[in-house]
Design a protein that fits this description.
The chain is α/β, with parallel strands linked by helices. It has 2 domains: about 220 residues, Alpha-Beta Complex (Spore Coat Polysaccharide Biosynthesis Protein SpsA, Chain A); about 55 residues, no CATH class. The chain has 10 helices and 11 strands. Strands 3-2-1-4-7-6 form a 6-stranded mixed β-sheet, with helices on both faces. A 3-stranded mixed β-sheet has the order 5-9-8. Strand 8, helix 6 and strand 9 form a beta-alpha-beta unit. InterPro entries: Glyco_trans_8, GNT1/Glycosyltrans_8, Nucleotide-diphossugar_trans. It comes from Hymenochirus boettgeri (Congo dwarf clawed frog). One of its GO terms (cellular component) is nucleus. Keywords: Cytoplasm, Glycogen biosynthesis, Glycoprotein, Manganese, Metal-binding, Nucleus, Phosphoprotein, Transferase.
Length: about 325
């Protein structure tokens, strides 16, 4: 449909990774609708170039910030003020209807049926079900609505300092007026809520259509081991994410996004996978080249304990030669 679109927002290069996976998941399940991404000036030129290969429309927008440090402090998420930039999505007036999806979401099947819903349709928030979660919602672009939202933000602010508080305040009748605007939770399954109500997830989780990686730790904040299919958070965050969904995200990232990043010469940091493989290769080469008096198991154990022979076999020059050889 040329007049309907899935819309997301990327405010920096990290969130571009999420936006790329989101688009890939929508394409994977053959959506018939346009894909639009709003980007701020903080997104690099190289990443914008990659976005243009995946999205039908890459639209630059200005940053809106609530500056509401008091309310954001309650959530311990001061970075969320910039999420007000999301309301730029109402300016996409060339589209008759849109579905906004946060860049930390991923679809698990075709969800084009959402375009049959009316504004503002959204799923309940797991933290306060009388509020909707603004990670996925159906809306109708309108410059008039955009201006009203700006006015509302200026006059009344947001009760959480971010877009969710603003939108729930503006669309205040969502909780009580029309149950048809309440999307089933499977359209915005919070990855962290799985563990707060595990029995429900076991009963209904197989019907999930969209997974939302809520919380501070995002999929791209994890290190992924391609051999064990295990992930480990790079942040000091205890948030638990269902490994099945996290692995699905990384499968898309490694198979569909890394080739794009590599093709464009984006920093190799983009794949923690490669880093882990290189580290393992260097270790194995060092083990294989070690004196016969030391077994490979003992050599590896010494490495893992930090007992490295810096003056001998494990000197900087030797490691550099081995690493160069591996990369070649």
């Amino acid at each position: 449909m040329t007049d309907q679109a899935f819309v997301t927002l990327a405010t920096n290069d990290s969130y571009v990774k999420g936006a790329l996976v989101l688009a890939s998941s929508l394409r994977q399940y053959n959506t018939k609708n346009k894909l639009v991404v709003l980007v701020t000036p903080q997104v690099s030129d190289s990443m914008r170039k990659i976005l243009k290969k995946v999205y039908d429309d890459v639209r630059m927008v200005n940053v809106l910030d609530s500056g509401d440090s008091a309310h954001l402090a309650l959530m311990k998420r001061p970075e969320l003020g910039i999420t007000l930039t999301k309301i730029h999505c109402w300016t996409l007036s060339e589209y008759t209807k849109c579905v906004f999806m946060d860049a930390d979401t991923m679809v698990l099947c075709n969800i084009d049926e959402l375009f049959e819903r009316e504004e503002l349709s959204a799923a309940p928030d797991p933290g306060w079900p009388d509020c909707f979660n603004s990670g996925v919602f159906v809306y109708k672009p309108s410059v008039e609505t955009y201006n009203q939202l700006l006015k509302h933000a200026a006059e009344k602010g947001s009760f959480d300092g971010g877009d969710q508080g603003l939108l729930n305040s503006f669309f205040s009748s969502w909780a009580t007026r029309d149950i048809n605007k309440h999307l089933p939770f499977v359209y915005n399954l919070s990855s962290i809520s799985i563990y707060s109500y595990l029995p429900a997830f076991k009963a209904f989780g197989a019907n999930a259509k969209v997974v939302h990686f809520l919380g501070k730790a995002k999929p791209w904040n994890y290190t992924y081991d391609s051999k064990t299919k295990c992930t480990k958070s790079d942040l000091n965050d205890e948030t638990v994410v269902h490994p099945e969904f996290l692995n699905l995200w990384w499968d898309l990232y490694t198979t569909r996004i890394i080739p794009l990043l590599t093709e464009e010469g984006v920093v190799k940091e983009s794949t923690a996978l490669q880093v882990e493989e290189i580290k393992e290769a260097v270790l194995q080469m060092s083990v294989s080249n070690s004196p016969q008096s030391v077994s490979s198991e003992e050599r590896k154990e010494r490495w893992e304990q930090g007992q490295v022979d810096y003056m001998g076999e494990d000197s900087y020059d030797n490691i550099k030669k081995k690493l160069d050889s591996y990369l070649q």
